[in-house]
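anyone seen this seq b4? input:
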Amino acid sequence: MQNDYTSKKFKKWLDKLQRESWQLELLVSGFVIFGLFSSIDPLIAKVDSIVNSVDRRTGGLVAAAGFVLLSINYILIFNLIVHLVLRGLWIGAIGLRYYSGDIIFDELNYSKKFTDYLNKKIGSFDKYIGKLEDYCSIIFSLSFLLVFIGLSFFIFFSIIFALGVISASNLDSIVIVMLVGLAVIGFAIVLLIMLIDFLGQGILKKNETIAMLYFPLYWIMSYVSLSFIYRPILYNFLDDKKGKRILFWMIPFYIIIATLTTLKYEQSNFHRSENAASESFASRGMYLEGVEDNRKRYFRDFAIQRKNVSKNSLRVFLTHNASLEDIVLKLNDSLSLKNDQRGVNTFFSKLFKDDIEYDSENFKEYLNTLNKNTIIKIDSIMYKENLVASFLENGQRGYETYLDLKNLERGRHTFQIISKKLNKKDAIVNDTLGSIPFWYYPDM
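predicted toks r here
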């Protein structure tokens, strides 16, 4: 049976749901908070794994999109915790009302000044319960409204990400790069206009002339951003003074919360994480030790087994990313495939791709090219051990080998790995991925 929203029966049913919705609110808030807390680490790990498997430009865009998703996550957690606290206070107030009834200020025997003031500011206990109910309902609705607003921003970031990938994949075509650049600028202007209208609570819709010019953009973007899903809730907020007030203070309030939660005391001008991957910095993120226990750790360029080596061998891991493979293909044209399997794939896209051109000989040639153009050094000594393809315990893709340290002197040493990259003139040059220290004290 189809619901007729104009019928009295339907309105009566909605009124009943409205009165009893607090039970569902508590259940939903509890489950969602638990789910959101559980999703933080997997989300960070997934974004980290993607960032460390693509080139730096694409990695930056993925990191930005991940930041948007995490921001939505934290905002929703914060809102729903506030909602749970207020709803708990509301339940407590109702329980107290059942026991004690309304507030009788005369029973308190306060002076006339305080009695009049409290009567004016607090008034009826039922009024207090009503206010709590209003704020609980508003915060609960606002929480999920913000999810969809955040989803719109995520879609915008995804579009920018897609444009960035297209540009990065066609750097040799000036026309495509310029067209993508113009598209990004145009999209950024559209975003700015939409943001002005959102922050101004519909300011561009109020003037007749501006509204006529703005309407086509508004109509198109409502489908691009999926905002048509949540706009009824948004406008329901905007037509109410209390809801409008909360929306108005929402952004500065979140900025204050973000500022307070990211307060940090910098201890040094020199001992900074920016100096990692240098011979003077033993960064934890450059050593494989403990990756078996912490599967959320991913490595950007390379890593060695540990900083204090007591055995006669050293495990070395070079991470795989799109840039590394692009260089190998540039160095060896025979490895270029007509049917490139890389990029974003789905089950359906795989139907139109195959591995006909791939075989083990190609893979051996790929590794040979990689090894010929990768230099591994300890201090000034070059090591010729060949890298083989492997996966770390956390699933990160890369290449590894073991270096023989039997003839190495005891004490501190510097590990260095040098690969290839394209410079601004599209020429292949050496690229030092980093230098890190380790200490060699073999067991006697």
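The chain has a mean pLDDT of 78. The CA atoms of residues 227 and 442 lie 63 Å apart. kinda curious what u guys think
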